[in-house]
């Protein structure tokens, strides 16, 4: 049996991540871990555990598989860490491995497909997000909206808008041109805006009946769905 990877540290409030500084620090940790520094290995895993789990939770249709896929990702990464030379950020490199891990898992399960329970998937995806995301306050779960977006567009949106990768980094992870990533993000954003409007629209009423006028002003769309 492979040893369980250390879980991420239990912290109360997540502080905003500086994409440039944090990526540089994690890349330095990966390079140190490559040389056999056990402490660097532990810090490298802890630094990226949340992002990897969040990413695979959106990619995999099986909510029960997120933890296993996360562990498999790190086991693969540690096994090939000696080949990492820092030409890309360690986070981009690791998310590429996470993507291949999910794809391999889906291929392996193709001979015996199983439908995932929608409610369980939604719960798992929501739990992988910070509860402070705009939309939760209004009872609208971003994960639920994303579930209705085509997979390729959803992945591009998650990588750039939720995990904070640059478009070029997301293109490296998914193996697609930068222009394709931009197009998928734009289409996903448009779909999310439309889905949110539908979700927050008042229930249709029979013509000629009114209960207190025409209703209030529309609520703003979630920031994560409209951010560039």
TrEMBL record:
InterPro entries: RNA_pol_sigma-70-like (IPR039425), RNA_pol_sigma-70_dom (IPR014284), RNA_pol_sigma70_ECF_CS (IPR000838), RNA_pol_sigma70_r2 (IPR007627), RNA_pol_sigma70_r4_t2 (IPR013249), RNA_pol_sigma_r2 (IPR013325), RNA_pol_sigma_r3/r4-like (IPR013324), WH-like_DNA-bd_sf (IPR036388)
Keyword Coiled coil among UniProt keywords: no
Leader peptide range in chain numbering: none
Annotated protein name in UniProt: RNA polymerase sigma factor
SUPFAM superfamilies the UniProt entry points to: Sigma2 domain of RNA polymerase sigma factors (SSF88946), Sigma3 and sigma4 domains of RNA polymerase sigma factors (SSF88659)
Pfam families per UniProt: Sigma70_r2, Sigma70_r4_2
Keywords, comma-separated and alphabetical: DNA-binding, Sigma factor, Transcription, Transcription regulation
Database matches in PROSITE patterns: SIGMA70_ECF
Region annotated Disordered, chain positions: 1-22, 200-228
Annotated PANTHER family: ECF RNA POLYMERASE SIGMA FACTOR SIGC (PTHR43133:SF61), RNA POLYMERASE ECF-TYPE SIGMA FACTO (PTHR43133)
Domain RNA polymerase sigma factor 70 region 4 type: 141-192
Family membership noted in the UniProt record: Belongs to the sigma-70 factor family. ECF subfamily.
Ranges of residues in domain RNA polymerase sigma-70 region: 45-110
Stretches with biased composition (Pro residues): 1-10
């Amino acid at each position: 049996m492979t040893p369980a990877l250390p879980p991420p540290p239990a912290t109360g409030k997540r502080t905003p991540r500086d994409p440039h500084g944090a990526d540089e620090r994690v890349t330095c940790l990966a390079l140190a871990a490559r040389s056999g520094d056990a402490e660097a290995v532990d810090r490298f895993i802890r630094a990226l555990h949340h992002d990897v789990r969040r990413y695979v939770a959106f990619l995999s249709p099986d909510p029960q598989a997120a933890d296993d896929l996360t562990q498999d990702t790190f086991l693969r990464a540690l096994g090939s860490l000696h080949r990492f030379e820092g030409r890309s950020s360690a986070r981009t490199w690791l998310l590429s491995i996470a993507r291949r891990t999910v794809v391999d898992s889906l291929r392996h399960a193709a001979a015996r497909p199983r439908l995932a329970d929608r409610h369980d998937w939604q719960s798992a995806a929501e739990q992988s997000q910070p509860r402070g995301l705009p939309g939760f306050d209004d009872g609208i779960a971003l994960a639920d909206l994303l579930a209705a977006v085509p997979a390729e567009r959803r992945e591009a949106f998650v990588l750039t808008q939720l995990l904070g990768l640059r478009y070029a980094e997301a293109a490296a992870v998914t193996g697609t041109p930068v222009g394709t990533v931009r197009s998928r993000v734009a289409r996903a954003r448009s779909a999310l805006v439309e889905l949110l409007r539908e979700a927050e629209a008042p229930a249709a009423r029979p013509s000629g009946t009114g209960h207190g006028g025409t209703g209030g002003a529309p609520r703003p769309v979630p920031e994560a769905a409209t951010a560039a």
